[in-house]
Amino acid sequence: MKLKYSYILAANLLLAATFSACQKAELTTFNEIKIPTSSPISPGNISGFVKGTLVTGQTYTVTADLTIKKGDTLSAQPGTIVIVKNNAQINVQGSLMLIGSKDQPILFNSDSNKPGTWGGLQCDTAEAITIKWTHIDNTGGPDAKGDARGSLKVKKAINVDIEDSWFTNGQDDLMAISNGATVTILRNTISSSGSTDGEGINLKTGVKGVVAYNVIFSQAGSGIKLETSSKIPFPQTEVDVYNNTLISNGWRRGSAEPGRAVSVGVNGIGHIYNNIIVNCYHGIELFTDGDITKTTYGNNLFYATVDTYADLVVPTQKINIRDNFYPEGAAGKPQISDLISKKIGDKDPLFVNFDGTVAAPNGFPNNYDFRLKNSSPAFSAGNPKYNLDLGAYTSDGKGNQH
After folding, report:
1. Angle at the Cα of 159 (from 157 to 162), degrees rounded to 5?
2. Residue 145 Ramachandran class (φ > 0 left, ψ -120 to 50 alpha, else beta)
3. Using CA atoms, how far apart are residues 248 and 320, in angstroms rounded to an integer?
4. What is the average pLDDT across 12-41?
5. Rounded Cα gap, residues 13 and 5, in angstroms
6. Whether 56 contacts 80, CB under 8 Å
7. What pLDDT shows up at residue 196?
8. 10: exposed, middle or buried (C-beta count within 10 Å: 0-12, 13-18, 19+)?
9. Which of 66, 161, 202 has the alpha carbon at shortest distance from 122?
10. Bridge-partner residues for 372, per DSSP?
């Protein structure tokens, strides 16, 4: 199916406008963007090389690997349903534009609807990635060697814009982005991913950008990880990490490699503010090999619903969660502006609905509501450079929309 020149031009102009908007402000309104129905793809089975538009209200079944070639664009309109069979993956060498809406999100899932049953979005050499109001569920199926695949991988200096979307039940890194990409990762919900390993948002080797208003629940490894490279230390990874809600992350690897809510290491730089961190194995860990001089942080809330919890790998080892808000031996220190719980009930963020789960398995259902009750101490406790409130759900309406 041949793309018309006018569609290519329109798609490129749309991408340019989108990325310009992302550079100007943290908030974008993709609901105003309409993907034109140019080169529509017929519903039914698809495989092999693909370009054009997945159309509103249609269902597509991926029967084998898809590839978007360099120079081509695959777009999806609101309400598109994509079902993936046979552990297939989507290889992106060109541009991917998944633009759903709040009322009509785009759906990507396997035919079995079970964790780790398709290969995810392999975008190592992509030209542009835009994902808005899209469910990407049950990724991380095994590769030819039997190893879990990451859910969304990028290894190129491109714009990666991921907003208002849901990612559940992956088996390794949920987002692994590196090699100088510029990221805008806003208002997403990441749940119950990583089988025995894997970070929620893993940014390395010169990545720049913003990670804000995301909810990350029950990740096997760290919720957000920032590093540069020991072999190529410059340009440095430098990311603003603010107003995220990070819950019950880092337990499935055990004490041999505990996960963190946020970690900064290997010459990376983070600016870490206004986050709510509850029941994570480690809170904020600033490794001594990170660029600690340039890293800034404060106005973060730390809470634990229990005093101690058993290490999942070595159950006889009891973990004092509060001792690990800023782990011993790392460079991070409690800040005067932080809200740090000293006991159960103290500095409780007062989520609308949360039963205090500390460690949960891959695929665990996230039926919680991490919005804040009116009496939460997280309101008006933020660094105003980012937001007056803490966490992903803020009173000004800028926060997570899920």
Report:
1. 130
2. alpha
3. 14
4. 56
5. 12
6. yes
7. 93
8. middle
9. 66
10. 351
pLDDT band at 32 (very low <50, low <70, confident <90, very high): low
Distance separating alpha carbons of residues 75 and 195, to the nearest angstrom: 30
Residue 331 in tokens:
């460079």
Q: Taking 50 as the threshold, does the pLDDT of residue 22 lie above it? A: no
Pairing of strands 182-186, 215-217: unpaired
106-110 vs 201-203, strand pairing mode: unpaired
Between CA 402 and CA 391 the distance in angstroms is 13
Classify 374 as helix, strand or coil: coil
The per-residue pLDDT for range 183-220, each reduced to its tens digit, is 999 999 999 999 999 999 999 999 999 999 999 999 99
- Give the confidence band of 34 by pLDDT, cuts at 50, 70, 90: confident
Cα separation values, 401 from 172, 314, 327, 337, Å: 26, 38, 32, 27
**Which letter does DSSP use for residue 396 in this model?**
T
Question: E strands of 248-305, at which residues?
Answer: 260-265, 269-273, 276-278, 282-286, 296-298, 301-303
**Up-side HSE of residue 65: CA atoms within 13 Å toward CB?**
11
* H runs (alpha helix) in 68-203: none
Return the number of other C-beta atoms located less than 10 Å from residue 47's C-beta.
Answer: 15
Residue 32 CB contacts under 8 Å (≥ 6 apart), including other chains: none
Lookup: tokens for 87: 């552990």
